[in-house]
Design brief:
By secondary structure, the protein is of the alpha+beta class. 24% of the residues lie in helices and 31% in strands. It folds into 3 domains: 121 residues, RutC-like (60s Ribosomal Protein L30, Chain: A, 2-Layer Sandwich); 125 residues, 60s Ribosomal Protein L30, Chain: A; 140 residues, 60s Ribosomal Protein L30, Chain: A (2-Layer Sandwich), CATH 3.30.1330.40. Helix 3 packs across helix 4 and helix 5 runs parallel beside helix 6.
Amino acid sequence: MPSGSEADVVPDVRVRRIEGAGTAEVFLQISPGSTRDDDRGQFASLAARAGQALLAQGLVPSNILCGWLHFARAPQWNWREALASAWETTVPLPISAVVQPPAAPFCYCTLHLQAVRSPRQSGVWYGNSEKPAAATVLRAGARHLRLMSITPRQDLRGSSDVVDLTYDMLAQAGHALTDRGLGFKDVVRTWIYVRDIKGNYGFVNRARNRYFEEQALARLPASTCVEGALCGAESPVAMDLYALAAKDEVQVEAIAPGRMGEASTYGSAFARGARIVEPGRTTLYISGTASIDAQGAVVAVGEIQGQLDCMLGNVHALLEKCGMCMGDVASATAYLKRKEDYRVFIEAASAHGLARDLPLAAVVADICRPEWLCEIEVCAVRIGVDQGK
């Protein structure tokens, strides 16, 4: 386990509850109560605290819309069965488990959850298919769909061609969307996990560019693409996605790049973020954002403080363009190349206006450019009438 003092341990549970538009939406970041050097003991503590945190918000596992388990190393037991047993549930859990070590000291695993409840729909609809794990909620006449733990087909996973594997993974996502009456044009955001991102990002990017071009997308989705391995999957690439079947009163649009340039100008097919405008509510999903300038160059090479300041400044500029601020951020995930940068990241995040009690997952992961030391993605929500219109 990492060295440090008990004072370094992050709070067990962080919560943001958003009430509005007839829905209660809850973001939770849970850390284990145990700091012992015991993988399974920490996981049991994490599962118990997560169950208690849900109950404290008036929620149950069937309210979970999506979630991410971050492990320091792949568990040697069936985490899904263990979690279902701890929560006494039989519902399929729309949770992806990824090997991305928590950056906080003493943590073997952490859990990031998003759950919803409304008078119209007390629980989340999970459908009849186990793979990919799917979750659907209805709000303002629109259908919000999560697809989790998407991988290439089993018979292709022995292939070493990352371009083909990535393309097939995207195609499998496309088929799953079509089965549910949607298409890639409806995708708001993706999360892509790549083993050996230094060697494989170019191949992943090539496949994504090709697939999106074939889909003739008028709006590119927001995205994060970082180092990570889906637990239990041998494939070098996996993904999660969020799609929205919008109605007239609900709009989805890519947001302007702020003080950064568009990622597509240097060959990466994703938007800097996506904005969803609903009656009485605006939600922003900001893509994985790093220390980059308007020309696509890395800022402050080799300097963590300089990169953190630029990265968080870029996020602030994106929020400001959409009439929001750091106080509207409901959840975030930060990717740090070096575990030892955790403390300076926490201080920088606070200095730039992110609340210290924000549901924030900080994990150790390489980023798509070797010069980058940090990256962050955020979800921001503002309740109000006609926000962003």
